[in-house]
Design a protein that fits this description.
- With 69 residues, the protein is of the alpha/beta class.
- Helix content is 25%, strand content 22%.
- It contains two helices and three strands.
- Strands 1-2-3 form a three-stranded parallel β-sheet, covered by helices on one side.
- The radius of gyration is 11 Å and the shape is flat.
Length: 69
């Protein structure tokens, strides 16, 4: 299953990503205002993005093939 997490470098997002990435493909975004890259395990694919600064078209591209948001 392909899972997409917003706020992936935050406390809750990172724990969720690290747990789910054992059995699933996890991708996430974070603006790193309060999150930390050190919380993420190497199995998680991430991008430094702010949801407020991307267009709807970019968001559609990011979510292509995602099963769970």
């Amino acid at each position: 299953m392909k899972i997409f997490i917003t706020g992936v470098a935050g406390f809750i997002g990172s724990h969720l990503a690290n747990s789910l990435s054992v059995d699933h493909q996890v991708t996430g975004i974070d603006n790193f205002r309060s999150g930390s890259l050190t919380r993420l395990e190497s199995r998680t694919v991430f991008q430094n993005l702010d949801l407020n600064s991307i267009s709807d078209f970019e968001l559609v591209d990011l979510l292509e093939g995602v099963d769970v948001l």
